[in-house]
Amino acid sequence: MPASDVTKADAATEHQGRRGARVALVCGDGLPVSGLLTIFRNIVDLVRAECGGIELPITADLGYSWRPDKAVFYPAGAPGLGYPQWLEVTDATPVPDRPGLAEEWLGLRSDIERADELTAEQRTAVTERIEELAAPYEEYFLSWLEKERIDWMVGVNMTLSDATPVTLALHRAAAAYWSDGRPGGLILWDHDLFGSYSVHEGETRVYPHAPNVFTPVPVAPQRWVVPTQQLQDEGRSYPTGLEPTLIPYVLPRRPQGPLQTRHEEFLAQQEIEPTRPVVLVPVRVFRVKGVEVAVRLFADLVRECERRGDPRPVLAVFGSLQEDPDYSREVLTTVEDEGIGDAVRFLGGVPLSSNQDEAGTWRLDEVDLLHVAKATAGGVFYTPNRPDVESVGLGPALAAAARLPFAATVYNALDGVYGPGWRYVRIEDKTDLAKAARQFADLLAAHRAADPGLEEDLQHNVAQAHRVFPDEPCLRFVRGLGSAL
To answer: Most buried among 44, 146, 277, 468, using CB within 10 Å?
Structure first.
């Protein structure tokens, strides 16, 4: 049935007998695992526990077909990817891959970034290329919405210009599908915006500093959600009358109790004795995430623990070495130069839900890895190497949620979003990490001993996390969506 033929009464009838709202997810990251997808999982868990009203599985497109910069997953994902039962991921390629298409996507993104430098003739050519790519995606999205009878579509990080034709198509398909009074709509959930997301490739900035003539921005009747006051302020400067809604991120449930069988099997498979503290680096292996800083800090920590006769820790990095091969080589060289290869584990991308492959190998999700770190008296490193990329940076919050000590480099959002009062190892100078390593060794020793002073600091951080990342704004927003249906 065409979207234009659907009335409110039709939609209400359609809802009878459903277990809840039908939700679709479009993520612009081009990855099977990202921090945003993990936060989305936290939201689904919270909403289903507190409100109900979401029908599973959630159908999703994770952006593989328009992100050739994530080469290992372009254009339809990679073999052997495992998804949780609640998430049904498509491998659709609305524009089939062909020679030169990857370069076209990347060239278009580059032209959009330098829009102010283009001639009138060049701008016309860019507009024509956008329209040519947008048309099949508009047809794809509209067909998807109609086939799945979607109530709410969530567009994650789609305002950025990684694939402006896809964003334009999503806006147009949503406008057509939710026409003539159909309840529901498109929710744009932006973790990063143009001005504050200062990602570079070499010396070149990937995104423009602000929306330009090519980039669609959220508009009414869409809903627009951002996680921080800084992003809300930036969004208010965009050429739209739509006000961004501020909803802080939802943190995962707190791991409790001793290690369970899957945790013990994971440690055995990773050749990690349970007596060794596991230090987590909850980031992708992507240049601005500063994994090389975490490795150097960890090397100093290992040497300090060895000097003291303390248990030798293990570093577990969440991300995949396949995402950014050039940067991964630099990180691996750092591991080799520091002589700590036997103590570092790259987890290959942390799944949305823990699972075993056919060979019985465990891949643990974020909550389970936090559980392992807590049970082994470990901690968390969060070490961005640029101050102006992370809009939130959840590493410190994850540490707090799991009652783990953490160390972090200084970055803008740590002060601007988190605010003062956190108790942790603060790294002011990334070139001299020995002092921070000694401080963190003290925390690991206190953690093993269940030191009351450390326990008080960790509980203080829990309270801080609940203050900065409360659940209620998300629940209030979702209840409003339920009322709208």
So the answer is: 277
